[in-house]
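Lab notebook, bench 4. Still working through the backlog of constructs that have no structural model yet. Next entry is a single chain of 266 residues. Request: give me the structure tokens for it.
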Amino acid sequence: MDAPIFVVDAFASREFTGNPAGVCLLPRPASKAWMQRVAAEMKHAETAFLSPTAGGFRLRWFSPTTEVDLCGHATLASAHVLWETGAVPLRGEARFFTRSGPLTAVRRAPFIELDFPADPCTEVNAPALLKEAIGGKFRFVGQNRFDYLIELDSPQHLRTLKPDFEKIAAVGGRGVIVTSRSDLRGFDFLVRFFAPASGVPEDPATGSIQCALGPYWSDKLDKKRVRSFQASARGAVLEAEPAGDRVHIYGRAVTVLQGKLRAGPS
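Model written out:
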């Protein structure tokens, strides 16, 4: 059976920016092994797999090498596809059941708003390997259940950073978030994200790290809603608004490819 598959640029207002995600619509759940093979074939940071269930959709995310517990840009892309194909009414809420619990998405023109669990970081001492991997001066080092969070001393340090991916992978956890105050007008902070242990050396645009960055910068800047630029080669604009134990993450999405996966689900 053919399966509809899409490539969507997430956290993007035009094609070929933000982060491309694969989105595969399934009539029923597929085997983990099959989904992993598809994700490896797609070669995007993550490919999302959706299948209908009571009250919404099961949603699983795979990098080219492993299943991941939480992914923002592929969730944004999934919601965009559901509305675009009519699987969810344009004014309806997209509901997902995931390894990180229930997630929702709604349209808040011109954005899509994701409702994700907050995951603030606790300050920690930086492991020696992490210092070697990143280098330079750190203003803050924190850690949550997924990642390390490092605030660097300057935007220039962040932009010119050339991390040691082998050492980052060896530190443990999913990846390393690197952030700094912004020197760009209209943005509160800059960010880059490295996850070589998950098969993604540098992610172009990352929604899930806003679960840590939203609370961190909102508190630091005393602002309700914060706006960031992910300073990857493709570039991306993200906004976040902490709401208690949740974080609302805002972005746009553009479909760049639609087709059918002829190697149907197993």
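Notes after review: The chain has a mean pLDDT of 97. DSSP finds six helices and 18 strands in the chain. Flag for follow-up if needed.
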